[in-house]
Amino acid sequence: MNIYRKIIPNPSSLRTYLHLKRYFNGSLYEPDYLEGQKSKIPLYDTLNIFIRGYDYPILENYQKFLHNMIKNMDINVEECWANTPQHMQISTYKPKSEVVKAQYNLRVYERAVQITDVSTLQFPVVLRAIEASLPTGVTVEVRPHEESDEEKRYIPDSELNALKQELDDLGGPSKTKK
């Protein structure tokens, strides 16, 4: 009580001060118990973990392993998906000539694991675990979720697009009134 007497000399004003402190501890329009439920540790919103590799079975098994490992760390795995493979044609040439020695057709497969609400304390542990368990020939990229990631997931239907184009060429959809 001696400490409070130095700050606030009148005991009745001390009661008022403590009451106001308790009353205005949180937000003016929100109850105090909502502030207690919030995490004091900052959280990342939505992160995408992209894994790429040339070997399909290894990539599929690593995605399954990664999904289970992250779930066991009590991190919310929102969803997982596969993107369409990229096709590449690689040519090797004979030394000092333009003659093709060999041609290779390669496919780069890509999988994604989307996680949400990861604390800033857990995230370095997740990154270290991913780095330690990464198989040979597989690369990993972690970045925040973007709209382009969502659009890249879906394969456009070329047949449907051709029919829409044909309809537009004929004058568009008919507009009949009922």
UniProtKB/TrEMBL annotation:
Domain of life: Eukaryota
InterPro entries: Ribosomal_mL48 (IPR027487), Ribosomal_uS10_dom (IPR027486), Ribosomal_uS10_dom_sf (IPR036838)
Domain Small ribosomal subunit protein uS10 residues, every copy: 48-143
Name of this protein: Small ribosomal subunit protein uS10 domain-containing protein
UniProt GO cellular component terms: mitochondrial ribosome; ribonucleoprotein complex
A Pfam family hit: Ribosomal_S10
PANTHER family (UniProt xref): LARGE RIBOSOMAL SUBUNIT PROTEIN ML48 (PTHR13473:SF0), MITOCHONDRIAL RIBOSOMAL PROTEIN L48 (PTHR13473)
Alphabetical list of Gene3D superfamilies matching this protein: Ribosomal protein S10 domain
SMART domains xref list: Ribosomal_S10
Keyword Nucleus included in the entry's annotation: no
Keywords attached to this entry: Ribonucleoprotein, Ribosomal protein
Species for this entry: Rhamnusium bicolor
